[in-house]
Amino acid sequence: MIELLAKLVAVSGVSGNEEKIAQVINEEIKAYVDEIKTDAMGNLICIKKGTEKRIMLAAHMDETGVIVTHIDDNGFLRFSGMGGINHFYSLHQKVEFYNGTIGVISYEEQVENLKDLKPEKMYIDIGVRTREEARKKVGIGDVAAFVGTFAVNENMVISKALDDRAGCAVLIETARALKDNNNEIYYVFTTQEEVGLRGAKTAAYAVNPDLAIVVDVTNPGDTPNAKPSLLKIGNGPIIKIMDRASIIHPEMKELLINSAKALNMNYQLKVATSGGTDAGAISVSREGVPTASIAVPCRYLHSPVEMIDINDAINAAKLVEKAIYKL
């Protein structure tokens, strides 16, 4: 899965601009499904036809980034976040626009205390001297993704956009592994999750599934700066019981826990009062959809140096596969 993940994170796909990453996913999954289509929101919907339950498996393609809001006289770019970017993480990081222009995020003055950092005082420096020079490279409304090198340290993977290319990799691996299954599987790679679960909302309405499983990432609680938690990277996939956007359906909870036990697999349970995944939009689609969310533990979310244990992602794929066979 590491090679697949390296391909997925190498392509930028900031919310609303997921075309290139959709093309890469299309190439990786097309041999394992019967039909692929793209809807008006840009969701990539890959269908393995069947005669029994209609199952929606979802992971979002988009990543956080920045959008240009103003160019000043000296060619410096003011910006807003696309999704929940962490401005502390963003300071002095590189971003890349879709035409290859590289910029550095910096600050109007020296920051003595990060608590005093104000987003409105941040800017992107693309190395020009005037507004006219800047406009030849970048325009208002252009978006850029953070630059983060893909690195592997034994079983640990470090990169930008693991949120949620890790989930996308899980779905592709599931498609490769599933054999002799009579359910109709919809592998849905959604758009605009980071800005409000938008793609999942329209995709779920169109698919009208009998049940759904969302695969995303989530913060563990095993670093010095984290809130105390039993959740740890490397301890297995996380079954999310609740977050701000959704509550797991009781039957789906039982399905996933029993599937993990059948695999003799370590799993973790998470209850949160903040955050949310595409499960929030899917679960309330039409008359309601029994929905569950599986998460790969991921440190340093929404930064260029997100970190996962690849074994957690591999086991998440095995868990999804087992759950489908048990239906």
Description:
The protein has 327 residues and is α+β, with helices and mostly antiparallel strands. It has two domains: 2-63 and 160-326, Aminopeptidase; 65-146, Peptidase M42, domain 2 (Elongation Factor Tu (Ef-tu), domain 3, Beta Barrel), CATH 2.40.30. The protein is 27% helix and 27% strand. The strands form three sheets. Strands 1-2-12-3-13-16-14-15 form an eight-stranded mixed β-sheet, sandwiched between helices. A six-stranded antiparallel β-sheet has the order 5-4-9-6-7-8. Helix 7 (250-262) crosses helix 9 (310-326). The longest helix is centred in the last third of the chain and has 17 residues, at 310-326. The protein is globular, with a radius of gyration of 20 Å. The mean pLDDT is 95.
- What's the number of helices? 9
Structural class: alpha+beta
CATH superfamily of the largest domain: Zn peptidases
CATH topology of the largest domain: Aminopeptidase
Order of helices and strands: HHEEEEEHEEEHEEEHEHEEHEHEEH
Percentage of residues in strands: 25-35%
Radius of gyration: 20 Å
Sheet with the most strands? Answer: 8 strands, mixed
